[in-house]
Amino acid sequence: MKSGTVIMRLAVAGALAFLAGCGGTSEAQTESIIRAEETDNHTATYSIFQKFSAPEYPADGGLAKKLILDAMQKEGLKGIDYKIEFAPGQDYMTKLNLKATAGELPDLFQVDYPTFMRLVNEGKLLPLNDWLAKSPHVSGMIRDDKFDYVTVNGYIYAIPTGNRPEPYNSESRAGFIVRQDWLDRLGLKAPRNLDEMHEVLRAFTYGDPDGNGINDTYGYGAAKDHQFAGIFGAFGIHPDFWHERGGMIKKGYVLPEAKEALAVLQSWYKEGLIDPHFLVTETKRRNENIIRSQYGMFQNAPLEVDPNSSTIAALHKANPGAKLRFFTNVKGPDGKSGFPESSPFGSLRAVSANVKQPEKLFRMLDWMQNENGGFNLIHYGVEGEDYSYEQAANRIVLHSEYAQLYRRGFSNPIRFLNDIDVRWASDEVKQDLVEAARHTISNALWKKVPAELDYADLDEDLWGQYFSKIVTGQYSVDRWDEFVKLYYQQGGDIIEQQANEEWKKMKATAGKK
């Protein structure tokens, strides 16, 4: 034990002994207070692993870290520090799995559902029930039903995404984005159904919408992870979701509606309306193509059209007359429409079972989620310098770009928990977000059953193969029937059986509430 700690213990013990002699403090209380003093004066440095790329973020945490630690000190949160490590995309999961295997899990980290379940079964995650009960600003932002999906044998093992209470702060926010200036040039309107969408995509591809006299545009642009959810939604399904049919649930991609959607996509692809490179296009490349005015329509969130969007800034720099507009509710032949609701498993945060002093970690996290604590400082920087708050309108006005905030150590790199707060968005975008949340395709069962982990290749490999080959015309649309047969032969029957058992239990439990 360090000499300073010994002196502190003796001084505190002496003072408390005096109080005890006067009848003020018992021996047990004395020892408890001593332990609390020791805890406060011993700095706990928490390792945070973020699935994020932030080359601008300073290695020492920058100005933000000093301001954050000072602010916590003033609020009585003593002896707390943090150290952040970043890794993007798949590299993140590779590194996380290596750390788990080596017994070196970070204190707080993002996790996907299969890894989450594996780590729970291996006893490597900290049960969070008690700590969340002591963290009202963390738990208060999260719907109760979200915790159901991360509860195993009565214990909560992860922190789902939270939402501020405003109606536009929804996770379900996908839709179509269109070049409104191209529509105006060609005398067209945003499509309301698939037939109108076909007309618009054809005009964007072959009608020289940018007026440069060159055949250099595609009606629809996509990336391998931003594909055609709205087209499947026009038939009332999402391929990866469970849908109720005849008193049981089935995967969307085995329903006849999937075949209808594939037929539409193949037809559009053969007509040249879809960028033929979408299957090998990364998101970054897709965004570059948007900025280069190669796409007339694509899938994304309304935030992409906000004046603060980096895409808007880059697009206007390249083409000052460009205008993007968000829309949704494109109906199919039966009047159905929608984009998939967001997964409760997105951006889960878990805590290592080996974390030291979890009480301090959760005091820090709760302060960071407290609007009267560190919430705005963490998210937006220094008030009056990086942002201002218009209380009457409940609006955040940004003065610093995200790259500037990152360089100073603020914003997304230090958002240790995921939450939805877009008070900074324009009124038009907020209305778009509310509209997007109204047109969603629901998943009847979010919880993964064991067979889905055992036969994970059915989603990624088998469906991925038939989807890509049918859309691009390498397979006929009728070969979808072959896919369905193989799906059930290769484990889909077991998945469906287990899913229905779980779904019926879930419905029975919900009926008792």
UniProtKB/TrEMBL annotation:
Signal peptide location: 1-28
Keyword terms: Cell membrane, Lipoprotein, Membrane, Palmitate, Signal
Name assigned to this protein: Lipoprotein LipO
Gene designation per UniProt: lipO_13
